[in-house]
Amino acid sequence: MRASVGLIGVGAFGEFMLPYLLPHCRIGAYDPVRDLEPLSERWAVVPEPLEEVAGKDIVILAMPVQRMAQVCRQISPYLKPGALVLDVCSVKEEPIAAMLENLPEHVDIVGTHPLFGPQTGANGISGLRIALCNVRGERLECVEAFLSKELRLKTIVTTAEEHDRQLAFVQGLTHLMSKIVVEMDMPELDHTTETFDIMMKMVESVRYDSEELFRAIENRNRFVGRTREQFFDAARTIEERLARPGPSAEAD
Fold first, then answer.
1. CB of 160 closer than 8 Å to CB of 96
2. Which tens digits make up the pLDDT trace of 194-211?
3. Is 52 helix (H, G, I), strand (E, B) or coil?
4. Half-sphere exposure of residue 232, counting CA atoms within 13 Å on the CB side?
5. Of the residues 9, 101, 156, 231, which has the fewest C-beta atoms closer than 10 A?
């Protein structure tokens, strides 16, 4: 018998997950703002009230980290003993703390962060990475086995602190640089180089991410502030260096 899965939050990533999960489970979905009826016509997903979605075998929290604590408090009375709760937030310390504080002790918890999204996974997710943090219970190995064997993902088991420390560069820096390039509003360019095209590929991969996601990556990870400081300090150092005469000018 296939496990029942409750998906809470069906935004861009929540919808992106559906074709990969549906062959393995029955999914009931809830979103506080989105009309899910058109989605249910495309995918075999049943829109259900929050209390029913929260009562499934596995509950996936796919909402912004800013709403995690509130949603955990809302679903807590409906979670059944032995259920598995997972999140897919881009940061890990804050949502894990929210789950531990607000979810009942009779549920297992695993924090996850798929290190890809609808743009980077547009051609399939096989071989892409996902970070896993065991929070409560003994279900980590089962989750890891499913992700690696069934979805062909590369799993990285880590701690919330180590995840956020590394993602301060991996996401905090790349999203910041990409948003700066987007803000420049460059004209269409024909004379591009391969290096420039690689940079623009990075920019395009996050160009259409929501402002909410960008702010979560930049503001909800306690390590990102220092990364931004380093970035802007380095930029000022380079600017000052370019303002000084270079070796060739000194030689003249």
1. yes
2. 999 999 999 998 888 889
3. helix
4. 8
5. 101
pTM value is 0.90
**Closest Cα to residue 223, out of 135, 138, 159?**
159
Q: Rounded to whole angstroms, how far apart are CA atoms 48 and 53?
A: 6
Question: Using the 8-state DSSP alphabet, how is residue 102 labeled?
Answer: H
Tell me how far apart the alpha carbons of residues 58 and 198 are, in angstroms, rounded to a whole number: 39
Structural contact between residues 39 and 15, judged by C-beta atoms closer than 8 angstroms = yes
What is the rounded average pLDDT of the residues 139-149? 97
* Tens digit of each residue's pLDDT (9 = 90 or more) over 18-59: 999 999 999 999 999 999 999 888 998 999 999 999 999 999
Closest alpha carbon to 78 in 96, 102, 100, 52: 52
Q: What is the largest CA-CA distance in the chain?
A: 81
Provide the b/e sequence for 192-202 (b: ≥16 CB within 10 Å): eeeeeeeebee
Whether residue 250 has pLDDT greater than 60: no
Pair of tokens at residue 11: 């935004």
